[in-house]
Amino acid sequence: MNNITLFNYFRSSTSFRARIALELKNLKYDYQPVHLLNNGGEQHSEKYRKLNPMGGLPTLVHDNKVIAQTMAILIYLDEAFPETYQIFPKDIYKKAKVIQFCENINTDIHPIQNLKVLKYLTKNYNLSESQKENWCQHWITEGFVAIEKMAKETAGEFCFADTITAADIFLIPQMVTAQRFHTDLSSFATLNRIFENCMKHPAFHKAHPFRQIDTPDELRIS
After folding, report:
1. Which of 163, 197, 214 lies closest to 15 in space, CA to CA?
2. How far apart are CA 182 and CA 187, in angstroms?
3. Among 80, 99, 102, 83, CA closest to 91
4. HSE-CB for 194 with a 13 A CA cutoff
5. 3-class SS at 53?
6. pLDDT digit string (tens) for 17-44?
7. Class of domain 92-205
8. Is the distance from CB of 73 to CB of 21 less than 8 angstroms?
9. Residue 162 has what DSSP assignment?
10. Where are the chain's structural domains?
11. pLDDT of residue 190
């Protein structure tokens, strides 16, 4: 056992990223569910806020060291477990390009579709479910137009040639979220090919939101 605990939620795309990384590196971990809706959101509890003041997911604890935010978690895992699968290239330019790809998702797409943003839109602007879905579709599509162009220049089987990197770890959860909001992804041929290749890999398969211990029975898949 590697003394790793992951506080996460089955449907959280950022939690999905961390699970993929742990599976790729074949690291055993204790899965601690934090439900984003039950009891007003368990991420708001005093106990969890002591662990992660922002209340975000996931949070990784390793040997009593606490790390939040998935980019920080992935970098930490690569350096803490150098003997395992490396998810960032060693070459500094290639590593920077992988991080650039990830951050296009992390800063320009993901936050706009975040649960707390959608709840704010409902509470303060009375948006309907269809209006919120249209909101998500707009920003996801705009972001995907850009990362499709980027991926065309670097992709092989995966985002960067034929090796799984952090770029794929960020892309696949975002594509699953896009599907959840019924976004039309048919025009993104490169991203769809990468998605199909990644989902054949055991790490992505095991980390999928609908295969977790806190996945509701009605959503669970084999």
Report:
1. 214
2. 14
3. 99
4. 31
5. coil
6. 999 999 999 999 999 999 999 999 999 9
7. mainly alpha
8. yes
9. T
10. 4-86, 92-205
11. 98
